[in-house]
Amino acid sequence: MTARPTFRPFLATFFRSFLIQGSWNYRTMLGTGFGFAMLPGLRRLFRERPEELEAAVERHLEHFNAHPYLSNVALGASLRLEADGASPETVRRFKTAVRGPLGGIGDALVWATWLPVVSMAAVALYWWGLPGAWAAAAFLVMYNTGHVGLRIWGFRTGLEAGRQVAGRLAAARFADWTMRLRSWGVVAIGVLAGAVLGGEGGLADAGSGWAVLAAAGFVLGLFVGHHVWRSAAVAVVAVIAILATWGTIR
Amino acid sequence: MSLLALSAMGGAIALDGTSVGQFMVSRPLVAGVITGWAIGDPLLGAVIGMVLELYLLVSYPTGGSRFPEGATAAVVAVGSSAGVDGGGALALGIAVGLVWGHMGGLSITWLRRVNGGLVPREDARISDPGRVALLHTLAIGLDFVRGAAVVLTGLVVGRTVVGELAEHWPLGPGGSVGLVLVGASVSLGILLRDFGGFRANRLKLAVGVALGLLGARFL
Fold first, then answer.
1. pLDDT tens string for chain A (250 positions)?
2. For FRET with A200, which of A140, B48, B107, B110 sits at 20 to 30 Å CA-CA?
3. Which of residues 221-250 of A touch B (CB under 8 A)?
4. Nearest CA in chain A to B197
5. How confident is the model at residue B131 (pLDDT cuts 50, 70, 90)?
């Protein structure tokens, strides 16, 4: 039986979790970053057993992938499992089982919802007249309140629950949070559209023709979805290039 | 600010995109503002950053997907447009930024392949904690160099393109903003689709638009 890790190695692993994607690659994905973040805790747990430490480091370098913020759940739980003396196969099976849910929940909640909703709120504030620096500061404070809070919650939950984290993840009702945030996100889309339309230096100032074209672009995105995003960006770059060339030769 | 210093700053901001923290300092709305302050034109930095943010609203750094890099796009766009008069600087800077954001995304894919060669292979049985920390830190250092190199090349190309073409730009400031916002509006439509579509959300959307217009009018 190994000694439970104390607070300090916990903190070091938590802080290292901010670097977990530093060596992201197509072979082990987050694997090396996961092992890197686990090192302080593992050193503490196996400080007088270098051979067990090396074996533990080796198993935590294996392939792993999840959302970077929610990988803290797996980090905390893996530390707990190692502290409880779980077998290497148990640790391996646990990490394999949680990586999919942690990736899916995090992608839907953070990347596809929290990030765009907070971004839209900040850009709307800018178009309402807030100086750019204040809008950016508001974005960073709002976004990172959720970001860092999620990392802390994940790490603590993993440490407390160990292999029982599935129940804690279900109890957290992330799907409900995502749906609620998306509901607010729709309002944010409207607010942003109104702010860009009516704000100083926005579409109203540019002329009604541009507002009509922007509405057409909005409808295009609404009906076609993500497939049209890259084409729209390419089209804008192409139009800018054509206009610049025309301006030069006329 | 010198080209090299701006590139180093771009490399540092780009680290936040994936490798370090992901506090979203690397989002265009923040990176644009920071670059604007660094080069002495915060207004230009803010407007370019905000417009690029609209473009990249639906670009998520999920797993192994390739996504345009917001940090390099914003730093290159603002750094290329700075000191150039007229609406053309804004439109051309954003065009260069969009192209270089894509280049940044390609370079991330390349770096991830390089990282795959750096990290220990399953059969190598590397378990020395010091070596693991060294490899991981080396990969982060490489990401900084990658970001700085992408920004540097983007600034060299961007300043040349914007400097040569901006004075002949045919649209005024209003038309230039209108043009780039037309492309950005596509992202808002995509987001509405992701959030449940128009039919189920039309009331909330209408309330939002009304609030947005009222805010623009009275704030």
1. 455 555 566 899 999 999 999 999 999 999 999 999 999 999 888 888 988 888 899 899 999 999 999 999 999 999 999 999 999 999 999 999 999 999 999 999 999 999 999 999 999 999 999 999 999 999 999 999 999 999 999 999 999 999 899 999 999 999 999 999 999 999 999 999 999 999 888 888 888 899 999 999 999 999 999 999 999 999 999 999 999 999 988 7
2. A140
3. 221-223, 225-226, 228-229, 232-233, 235-237, 239-241, 243-248, 250
4. A222
5. confident
Residues of B in contact with A241 (CB under 8 A): 95
Whether A195 and chain B come into contact, CB under 8 Å, resolves to yes
User: Which chain A residues are within 8 Å of B211, Cβ to Cβ?
Assistant: 187, 190-191, 194
CA-to-CA dists, residue A95 to A20, A61, A167, angstroms: 15, 12, 15
Query: Which stretches of A46-173 are DSSP H helices?
Result: 50-60, 71-83, 88-106, 115-127, 132-161, 165-171
Provide the pLDDT for residue A26: 92
Domain residue extents for chain A? 7-206, 207-250
Residue type at B44? L
Q: Is A146 helix (H, G, I), strand (E, B) or coil?
A: helix
The reply to whether residue A107 touches residue B60, judged by beta carbons under 8 angstroms, is yes
Chain B contact for A7, CB < 8 A? no
> Is the C-alpha dihedral spanning A73, A117, B63, A144 positive or negative?
negative
- Asked if residues A35 and A10 have their Cβ atoms less than 8 Å apart, the reply is no
- Helix ranges (H only) for chain B are 3-15, 28-39, 42-55, 70-81, 87-118, 129-165, 173-194, 202-218
